[in-house]
């Protein structure tokens, strides 16, 4: 179905884009509502989900080489339960792709194109992403390698420019209410880190599988550091007000003024962020399309690209009536919904696969004896 190959470094960039593109603009406020001044500690705990998913993806690829999770879940769980799990994955990624597209539209319209209909913004974006997805995994790999590098540089530059306005006292007292608020604050970032479930789709298409686990772990570490930096920057700038802002980092960018010369750079920030969001949407879109094609037993996913693109556009409108409802959903029940599908199910599949392998070895040794 997918003849293209990507390097482990390109996979790391693609996986990096999935949690970071929306995470850096939305997560600081969501995390601050639970963890308050300890919001910068929550991504460190949440990153454990990403590390475990990379390890699970690597081990499952060793057990079932050149097969994606949609294909080997039938071998692990049986035909009917495997098909049922496949349907759950497909439904989830269709739903999630609609959410990601809606987040993108809300951010662009709410901050820059206030009078433009959201459907116009999201419609053009879906068409561009559909063309990229139809071109295949290699094109997505090259796009991520170029665009995500710019996004990383942007985060570092913006952080440096914001240093004069930061107040270190906003960090203290550290863990004033103990560890529980930090753990509660980690629930939503865990959902973002569970996007590393995509590694179960990407590992079979690596050209250098021996480096896959290393670059996957580096990608998780890079996401964790990015979230810590953005959360800490928002906290040092706004303190307790961070939880009340929809997009703390965008508000921060608008405050940048260096010697009366470097200011009003939000347009530059938006243009580079859009490139990162483009890769993020493409990756969710790609997994939804390929997963659907594999579940249906099709030989090619390309005939589904544009029909499912229309469905995702419709879903992005139906997801929630407004940004407040969407943010509330993402900050509460969605974390458990996403973790159950993208973390607990792969973990159970991995454990069952290990048990099957051990039973197979014991039967083989018993028959030989």
TrEMBL record:
It is a multi-pass membrane protein. One of its GO terms (biological process) is spore germination. Keywords: Germination, Membrane, Transmembrane, Transmembrane helix, Transport. The chain crosses the membrane at residues 12-33, 39-58, 84-105, 117-135, 147-166, 186-206, 218-239, 267-289, 301-319, 334-355. InterPro entries: Spore_GerAB. Belongs to the amino acid-polyamine-organocation (APC) superfamily. Spore germination protein (SGP) (TC 2.A.3.9) family. NCBIfam families: 2A0309. This is Spore gernimation protein. It comes from Paenibacillus hemerocallicola. The lineage of its organism: Bacteria, Bacillati, Bacillota, Bacilli, Bacillales.
């Amino acid at each position: 179905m997918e003849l293209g190959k990507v390097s482990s470094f390109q996979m790391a960039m693609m996986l990096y884009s999935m949690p970071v593109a929306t995470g850096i603009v939305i997560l600081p406020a969501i995390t601050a509502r639970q963890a308050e001044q300890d919001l910068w500690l929550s991504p460190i705990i949440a990153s454990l989900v990403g590390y475990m998913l990379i390890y699970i993806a690597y081990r499952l690829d060793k057990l079932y080489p050149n097969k994606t999770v949609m294909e080997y879940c039938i071998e692990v769980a049986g035909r009917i339960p495997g098909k049922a799990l496949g349907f759950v994955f497909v439904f989830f990624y269709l739903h999630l792709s609609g959410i990601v597209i809606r987040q993108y539209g809300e951010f662009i319209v709410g901050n820059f194109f206030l009078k433009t209909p959201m459907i116009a913004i999201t419609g053009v974006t879906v068409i561009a992403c559909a063309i990229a997805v139809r071109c295949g995994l290699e094109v997505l790999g090259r796009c991520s390698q170029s665009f995500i590098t710019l996004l990383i540089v942007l985060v570092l530059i913006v952080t440096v420019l914001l240093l004069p306005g930061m107040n270190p006292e906003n960090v203290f007292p550290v863990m004033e209410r103990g560890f529980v608020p930090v753990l509660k604050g980690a629930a939503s970032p865990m959902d973002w880190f569970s996007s590393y479930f995509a590694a179960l789709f990407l590992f079979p298409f690596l050209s250098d599988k021996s480096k896959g686990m290393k670059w996957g772990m580096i990608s998780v570490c890079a996401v964790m550091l990015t979230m810590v930096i953005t959360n800490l920057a928002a906290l040092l700038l706004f303190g307790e007000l961070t939880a009340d802002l929809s997009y703390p980092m965008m508000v921060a960018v608008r405050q940048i003024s260096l010697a009366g010369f470097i200011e009003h750079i939000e347009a530059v920030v938006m243009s580079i962020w859009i490139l990162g969001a483009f890769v993020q949407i493409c990756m969710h879109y790609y997994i939804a399309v390929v997963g659907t094609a594999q579940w249906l037993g099709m030989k090619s996913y390309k005939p589904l690209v544009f029909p499912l693109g229309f469905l995702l556009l419709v879903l992005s409108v139906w997801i929630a009536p407004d940004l407040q409802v969407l943010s509330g959903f993402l900050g509460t029940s969605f974390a458990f919904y996403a973790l159950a599908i993208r973390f607990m199910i792969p973990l159970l599949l991995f454990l069952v696969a290990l048990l099957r392998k051990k039973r197979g070895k014991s039967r083989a040794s018993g028959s030989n004896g």
